[in-house]
Amino acid sequence: MSATITPPAVSIPPGDEMHAVHHQPGWIRRYIFSTDHKVIGIQFLFTTLLMMMVGGALALGVRWQLAWPWARMPILGDMLFRTDGGQITPEAYTMLFTMHATVMIFLVVIPILAGAFGNFLIPLQIGAEDMAFPTLNMLSYWFMWPAIGCFMLSFAYDGGPAAGWTIYPVLAVLPQAAPGSGFAQTLWLFGLTFVGFSSMFGSINYMTTIINMRAPGMTLFRMPMTIWGMFITAILQAFALPVLTAAGFMMLADRMLGTTFFIPGGLVVNNAPATVGGGQPLMWQHLFWFYSHPAVYIMLLPAMGMVSDMLACMSRKPLFGYKPMIFSMATIAGLGFIVWGHHMFTSGMNPVVGMTFMVSTILIALPSAIKTFNWIGTMWGGKLQFNTVLLNCAAFVSMFITGGLSGIFMAAVPVDVYIHDTYFIVAHFHYILFGSTLFGIFAAIHFWFPKMFGRMMSDRLGQIHFFITFAAFNCTFFPMHLLGIGGMPRRYADPYHFPYLEHLLPLNQFMTYAAIVMGFAQFILLFNFGWSIFFGKKCGRNPWNSNGLEWQAPSPPPHGNFDVQPVVYHGPYEYSSPVSGENDFLPQTEYMPRRPDQSQGH
């Protein structure tokens, strides 16, 4: 006779057994100024997808100029530059790459990961009804719109901001220093401030929610990697963002109040004394990169967590090395705080300091390698589900490896001195933040779309979008390594006036054709996304047979998320478990008798 196994008793707070009928707010309160984390997450998602197309159009403007210098650019040139024939001017080119980076970093990658997926998934994956501070959560979204307004309005003044997305002084401080550093740059700084407040509101909410609102039985080491990625990212935001915000206020004071935090003494602009200063331009670089290097991991760690969850599900295997993955993410975050100086090797520094930054930067390769081998180990020998989700996750891993290997080159001071201001840096940056992060985002959109809207996206269209984007991406950005080694400088509107670079024009034209193909391929994603909301195949609660807690809720989840308070009995990666019976998955809410060899987390 088989003994009946009774799940251990888990205390549930009174009143949490079932959700009461909630008052239904009006349409505007429910869908516009909503405090429901799911609606806010979807609002972030729609907004960032729109801004992704804006940022992509600006990138095509950059590529157009490099392929056909000073030629008329159709449509975008007529709209933005208001010159005869829509020709790109040198000032307009500087504005293009400034605003492309601004839009893609501050209005796309960070808010789509932390804002869209963080908002939607955190309460669902930890078994909570909502965020800890719903009103603050709503404000985190609506503070994005003043930022978008400031950034977009800056196009109308002085030809737009033209000091680069790093806005180094003194170019970005003195209006008379260069075109595009006038009121447009002030608007840019206000936009950055609003984005900072939005991110800070979110980080406070995420940390509080994850620490205090986990479901009964959801210990820290039973949380999925998505939650760990969001949690560590929120900590990064909370400690690094105030530094950039303070620096932004200091620069605004220099521009508007006559202070001299970043303006040196004896400065002469256009053959005339600019101001009586006494500040340090290099201080801005330290403050800016103290935030902006951790920002690389703010853009990467959530994607790492989500890809870990998706790979385990699509491989039908437990995640390889769950705790080492957590510790490696925490190590990456910790090291990210002490390596900002590698962005300043060419600014000059004491050799001992340079050596310290170099060694600490190289050390990041160790936890990064742990994560890479764990992803490969998860897929190795698994029952791989060859669909859009798996393809994009595999692309994330491969692009992360490529970008990480190029990063080791730049960690070495003597190598970085040569390649720092070349297209080698552009290639590395895009392999990490486009090739890695955006492929992870594409996978996440397909994976969690059924939970958001109760329908499936077209896998055929998803695979077409993937293969075109993957091929076009590598044709666009891999040759940049060759350009950089060949000495092609970045941020030059016409580098071909250097005789030794004239032979690079055909390669730039090839890359531009690839970039155009990649840009138009994103309309496949947008069509698939929009069409599937209304006409996609309807699905149940758990179309992927995943173990995550979010799949126990209806699709889409109602207000309050769950029918009853979920109780967690084990970790989220019990795929192909011998105690799961006929299924190859075991949801976290199903009790599993603990074997002697099982770890606490599983």
Automatic annotation (TrEMBL):
The keyword Oxidoreductase applies. Residues 21-569 form the Cytochrome oxidase subunit I profile domain. The lineage of its organism: Bacteria, Pseudomonadati, Planctomycetota, Planctomycetia, Planctomycetales. Keywords: Electron transport, Heme, Iron, Membrane, Metal-binding, Oxidoreductase, Respiratory chain, Transmembrane, Transmembrane helix, Transport. GO terms for biological process: aerobic respiration; electron transport coupled proton transport; respiratory electron transport chain. Belongs to the heme-copper respiratory oxidase family. Residues 592-602 have a biased composition (Basic and acidic residues). PROSITE patterns: COX1, COX1_CUB. The keyword Transcription does not apply. One of its GO terms (molecular function) is cytochrome-c oxidase activity. Its EC number is 1.9.3.1. InterPro entries: Cyt_c_oxase-like_su1_dom, Cyt_c_oxase-like_su1_sf, Cyt_C_Oxase_1, Cyt_c_Oxase_su1_BS. It holds the Pfam family COX1. It is a multi-pass membrane protein. It is found in: Membrane. It is an enzyme of class 1 (oxidoreductase). This is Alternative cytochrome c oxidase subunit 1. GO terms for cellular component: membrane. Residues 579-602 are annotated as: Disordered. The chain crosses the membrane at residues 39-64, 103-124, 136-157, 187-206, 227-252, 288-307, 319-340, 352-377, 389-413, 425-449, 461-482, 510-531.
